[in-house]
């Protein structure tokens, strides 16, 4: 368990979680903003994308009342990503994060706000992050409202930075300091 905040818990991904990821990443409502509705993930694809990669991402499952409800990952930004985003202080400890709640019954209940706030506290406390960044699509208004409630602010428009459903989407670089 990485951390727990009331009914919310975040733990590292286990192989048996591939069934949850496949379920969530086959749901068009989840895929509308994460991966794309044209890119559903069966078990083989989940295993390839989430388990076969060697990188610095820490992949986790979000639980609420001991039920798996979503996914979150975090990672230190590499030098290339820092430059791309416009960060020039190489001594800054910058983390990125991405997440989704895969169980629609848990949407619009404040769980996303609790999750993002708790993860930011974990990253700034346990990982000594100076800055935490995300890059949501500009059209994902619900997520952006959540992130702004958690203290993130828009710092830079990233034009046509994410290929999603066959079209390049604009994203916001948002940060928590």
Q: Could you walk me through the main structural features you see in this protein, from its secondary elements to its overall organization?
A:
The longest helix has 15 residues, at 111-125. The protein has six helices and eight strands. Helix content is 29%, strand content 33%. It has helices spanning 18-24, 28-31, 43-51, 79-85, 111-125, 141-149, and strands at residues 3-5, 8-12, 58-64, 67-76, 94-101, 131-134, 153-164, 167-176. An eight-stranded mixed beta sheet has the order 1-2-3-4-5-6-8-7, sandwiched between helices. The mean pLDDT is 96. The chain has a single domain, classed as 3-Layer(aba) Sandwich (Aminopeptidase). The two termini are 25 Å apart. It has 177 residues and is of the alpha+beta class.
Helix content: 25-40%
- Please identify which CATH superfamily we are dealing with: Gcn5-related N-acetyltransferase (GNAT)
Give the name of the CATH architecture: 3-Layer(aba) Sandwich
> What separation lies between the terminal Cα atoms?
25 Å
With strands numbered from the N-terminus, the spatial order across the biggest sheet is 1-2-3-4-5-6-8-7
Average per-residue pLDDT, rounded, comes to 96
Q: What Rg, in angstroms, do the CA atoms define?
A: 16 Å
Quantity of strands, as a count: 8
* Number of separate domains: 1
CATH topological fold name: Aminopeptidase
- Overall body shape: globular
